[in-house]
Amino acid sequence: MARNRAFNIDVGIRGVLVGWGSALVLALGFPVSAGALAPVLRVGVVDGAPPCSYRDAGAWRGLAIDLWSRIATRERLAYVVTEMPSVQEMLEGTRDGRLDLAVGCLNVSPDRLERYRFSLPFQEDGLAVMVVQSRLDLGRSFLAALLTPALLQLLGGYLLAIALLALLTWKVERYPQQPQTLSDGRVRSFSKVFQVLATGPGSNTLVATTRGNTIVLVAYVVRIVSASLLVGYLTVNVAREVQGTASGGIRSESDLRGLRVGVRSGTVSEALLKELNAANTGPKVSILPLTSIRSGVDLLVSRRVDALLGDNLQLSYLLINSPLKGFLPSLALQGIRPESQAFVFAPGLPEATAQRIDLAISELKRSGVVSSLRQQATTVVSTPTR
């Protein structure tokens, strides 16, 4: 009987200590009913889903783990943790009686609502797509954007306008008859006029007539307008090209078709990819199941997958806690199909216990504890062990 009793003690920061033995449960004052000990909840968790649930140096950590620890301490609920191999296996464990509760950032999707009993949601999150590009790739895309026909046409138009104005200046100021032209040569003198009009400094020394000053003023306006057009082009087009490269050319979830995408098994992310494959006759998504979302970063860097699909919070966590030398990770898409996230109750979990957990979630949300835990989850921390 002692083996079927456990108790969780909040040790302050995030520690979870499961104590065995009914004597310990009684000693710490758990509520009893009709002379019997309060039932010990069998809680399922899944590793490899930072910042919601993961192992670090043998201890369970994460937003969902910390939230459950606070709830269990607050409501004096005894429980024992069981690690499950996948999210789907954990969810099924609540249905077949192996678990009383599934703890994690579990999406309350329509298909899951038909099969599972959810707690009160504690947050809402959508899906996101992560890609990585090397700095060399971004440099190449920047140079390619600079050599586009549109930019070359803009530069050519500017130089042509300056050349025409230089020719007018050459004729109005009678440069062919000037002594300096006769000594330096026509080509050198004309190139000097062209250079001064194109750059600006020294243009007041080129002319001596009113018509010449008018041409210099027109050249000034041409320079200002051309400079504005060039800056606008670089700001919009080049930045867009580089951003497109950084996002891997993914602008919507349908762009995942034909790519190799890593997802955690049994998640709504995997369900989305299967939906894309079922709804289109074109290229299919190559789905690569992952045991840990963190392992997907290594696959991205080694080019074994083209993108990662997962919860926005998870990929944001990886973005700030996975420094990659020579590579720039980015979230190409965010906020895909946002859904509430909650725990899952077993059908046999007593209604009174479920109500206590829901009430605790509501109070912790209202007091700001949940938002604080979420903020901590997206703060740079030491890298968890894989």
Structure description:
Helix content is 46%, strand content 23%. With 386 residues, the chain is an alpha/beta fold. Strands 5, 8, 9, 10, 11, 12, 13, 14 and 15 form a 9-stranded mixed sheet that branches. β12, α10 and β13 form a beta-alpha-beta unit. α5 runs antiparallel to α9. The longest helix has 37 residues. The radius of gyration is 33 Å and the shape is elongated. The two termini are 35 Å apart. The N terminus and C terminus are likely disordered.
Concise overview:
Helix content is 46%, strand content 23%. It has 386 residues and is α/β, with parallel strands linked by helices. The protein folds into three domains: 161 residues, Periplasmic binding protein-like II (D-Maltodextrin-Binding Protein, domain 2, 3-Layer(aba) Sandwich); 93 residues, D-Maltodextrin-Binding Protein, domain 2, CATH 3.40.190.10; 105 residues.
